[in-house]
Fold this protein.
Amino acid sequence: MHLRELIRVIRYAMIIITLIIYLFPIYWIFVTAFKRRIDIFALPPRWIFTPTLDNLYEVINSGMIYSILNSAIITGISVIISIILSTLAAYGFSRYDFKGKDLWLFYIISTRMMPPIVVVIPIYIMFSILHLKGTYIGLITMYTVMNIAFGTWIMKGFVDEVPKDIDEAAEIDGYPKWKFLLKVLLPIIRPGLTATIILMIIFVWNEFLFALLLSSTNTRPASVALASIRGERGFNWGRVAMLETIYILPVIILVFLVQKHLLRAMTFGTVRE
Amino acid sequence: MNERYAPLIFVGPVILLLMAFNIFPLIWSLGLSFYQYSIMRARLLRFVGLENYVRLLSDPEVWIRFQITGKFIVLAVGLEFLIGFAMALLLRGEFKGKRIVVTLLLMPMMIAPVATALFFRYLFDRNWGIINYFTSKLFGIQIYWLGADPSPLLGIEYALLSLVLVDVWMWSPFMMLIILAGLSAIPREVFEVAELDRISFVNKLRYVIIPYIRPVLLIALVLRTMDAFKTFDTVYVLTAGGPGITTELISVYIYKLAFLWWDMGGACALSYIVLAVIVFLTNVYMRYLSR
């Protein structure tokens, strides 16, 4: 019995150590965001210090905050469009048979394998010609396209789980299709839908390569703004840490909301809990 | 609604968008890979056939990048696998607060790689970084983490090692999550029988656990290897490929080829070579591990 207890204690201790190692970097950046310059460059590091909001004012005053706004605009619009289109397509793929259906499904899942760098070059040329480079519309279009492949696949899994009898019952009751989708199907698949939306948000919010190449100074989202801080004279780590904190905080909150469905979505549905 | 056209209304928009912004660009870039082309000089568009491919495949510069990428992938995916497996074994079964622990461990892979890379630059900083503070306190050494000096781990440069460590920090939880799902699918009785037979832990791992979760391990390895090939954001921000070319992964090289030296044709050709490598590797994995 004593040995059992000991093993249990050791296990908890190891779990806590793992957590500390894993979360320390995030903790340190949060803390740095509220430090004064003196405390940031102090050696040995200051564990206890007087917190300040100076970095926040600086981020707001220097206009860096606009990049967060850009991220929000681009993410919001593209996710709304992608979730509507993906859910409709998921329903189509789940309930109808048509020519080339399997081929399309295969193509959709194989986009998971594609390195984005393969697509980004022709897109760059294409958007330069169409004058979409540097515009919100360009980025929103691209993120919508990237999200609908993922979204259609995941949502199809959720729609497949809804028995077909429900469709038929609704049809017999004389429900028009759109009403069935909105009033019957949507409430059933809501948990899956919410998870998919959140993952779409996180994807767009975090994306960097397309944002780097397709945005301009005015439309540049936070990921690019963060990466390009490097260019400015020296690193003002306090300011960087504050912008990072503002940037990653929404993601951390969303992960807590979506954790249950995360695995399934991240593996394109190949692994379920 | 006419039944014949109903599916078109549902899937039509998605298919059209994919065709316009995904399939068409892919075909276009395949086409471009046979041309000499630069967007900076619009007049320059010359058909060169397989010349780009021949030139790139016989270029030692390209092979060096493949070697760097190979080292990075083997080390990062290998470490992620081991650490992820260990973490999954640690978190197996039920205990108080499991859900919150797992969720917290997922954070590194959900936060933007750009943000992660940026704060690791701060943590790795030679003079002010907290990591060096710990190493000097504990072992009395100061390490130039993002430099080109060889590290104790197989002699790879510290910069590459740092990149591997950041990647491991980000993605071990992903391995853990998949393996944890696999472990929870093992029937309880199997463990109970093993318990009764008093098999040692190593043998339990070898004869009970691993055979059971083999398919899941396979998925984890394939997905991570594929994604490791795509690593771009992390390198771009952490080291930008440097110092020198020590951390210039193939994706960064393609980026430079296309947008620094404006060799669009070559960049397209190289990205198709990379795509072929990924498809090939995935097949090897599948064949080798799913027997």
Q: What stands out?
A: Chain A touches chain B through 88 residues (CB under 8 Å). Residues 111 and 137 of chain A are 22 Å apart (CA to CA).
